[in-house]
Amino acid sequence: MLASMTDKQKFPGRQTHKGAIEETPTFTPKFGADGLIPAAVTDAGDGRLLMLAYMNAEALARTIASGEAWYWSRSRDALWRKGETSGNTQRIVEIRTDCDQDTIELVVDQTGPACHTERRSCFYRVVETEGGAVKLVLKD
Fold this sequence. Notes:
single chain, Ubiquitin-like (UB roll)
């Protein structure tokens, strides 16, 4: 049923006035022209940024309904549930949105590593400069 619903049906009540968006109790996520909204994923235990992914309206609706993280893969052009093949699942603790509702934060209980490289976080490299050169340094 979710697949046949439009974005507006899944998330009705889009606000257009800036003040209304910032103060409304109505959840009206603002998807981009590509139909996607960025989702920052943080660990419920310590707040560490684990990954950044994208969601379409169906992924967001499934996440809300199931309590598990669903995303839209831009490279595969397909919907996917985190941990579907790896077993490294994300149980939703809280879903937040920013002030203008164009970004989602998923606060999760992460099972196993979040990154496909088997690291805890996808953000395991730090940008540093040395002698005028910019390089990446591993920092798990």
